[in-house]
Amino acid sequence: MNTMWKKCICAAAVMTLMGSAAALENTVKPQVTEPIAKAPKVALLIGNSYSFYNCGVHGYLRGFMKESNPKLSMKTRMITISSGPLSFHDMKFYLSPHEQDPYAHVENGRLTKPMFDVVIMQGHSEAATSDKRLPYFRKYAVQDAKLVREAGSTPLLVMTWPRQNKPADIKKIADRTIEIGNEAGVRVVPVGLAFAEALKEKPDLVMYQPDKSHPSAAGSYLYGAVLYSVLFHKSPEAINYLGECEKPLPPETAQFLRRIAWKTVTEFYGWKQP
Fold it and tell me: What is the residue range of the signal peptide feature (predicted)?
């Protein structure tokens, strides 16, 4: 093999490695990367309008579970507050038993088991981009994660997406959210990175509402697909499901978003493809 040919092969290998390493927009690496040990049966999702648009991301998640093979079953309680950061949510109250609560198994006024297997925390849309909001995002993510663990549940932190007219913000959102997730010792759910990956491949795909902030049906679908991938350590790629809220997606769009969700999650956590 001549020297020039060897140089070409080496250069190609380096470029491949560089391209692979730079595939996602984060530079900070997540510390909690292993799959959840056991498929959750009951989940609590707290957030704001980013989670309740298009009839709620829990509906999309339920759709993926229903069409999964084998079918998956998980009850999801979603509590959202319009424009609400994590500080608006009373986590201790949410995790406590209440009269007539079907998730609370109580004896002598005390829970006999945790109400939720997982608690998914979705913060304010500007929590990671606003220097004013960032300290509160950190404070309540760490504080709430501790409360969740003390209640016997597993906390997760959602990485949101940038505004449509500020795509470069994904780097700041990703790294700051991962830093806080690492400090809190929680899994970060890389929804924002999945948005970025989808738009890299299909820049014209409508992922936003006209306000350039809230998710379109495609955005909520991708959010749900990422949650499914993270919670169950399963690829959604083969699932024949097109959406919720009387907003079904074209099959090719749904298939594309399912692929992006699994690609992003496996690359983010460093999971091996089955």
Answer: 1-23
Asked if the model's pLDDT at residue 28 lies above 60, the reply is: yes
| Nearby residues of 272 by Cβ (< 8 Å), 6 or more positions away | 266
Place of tokens 């780097």: 171
Instruction: Name the fold adopted by 39-269.
Output: Rossmann fold (3.40.50)
Per-residue pLDDT, averaged over 221-237, amounts to: 98
pLDDT at 272: 85
Chain centroid to CA 236: 14
User: What are the tens digits of pLDDT across the range 106-117?
Assistant: 888 788 889 999
Tokens 């608006």 locate to: 88
pTM assigned to the model: 0.91
CB 58 within 8 A of CB 66: no
Q: What pLDDT is attached to residue 122?
A: 98
For residues 139 and 20, give the distance between their C-alpha atoms in angstroms, rounded to a whole number. 34
Confidence of residue 13 (pLDDT cuts 50, 70, 90): very low
Q: State mean pLDDT over 137-152.
A: 98
| Continuous segment of H or E residues that includes residue 6 | helix 3-21
What are 9's two structure tokens? 């092969």
Helix (H) or strand (E) holding 259: helix 251-269
Q: Which residues pair with 178 in a beta bridge?
A: none
160 phi-psi bin (left φ>0, alpha ψ -120 to 50, beta other): beta
Q: How far apart are CA 274 and CA 269, in angstroms?
A: 14
Which residues lie across from 78 on neighbouring strands? 45
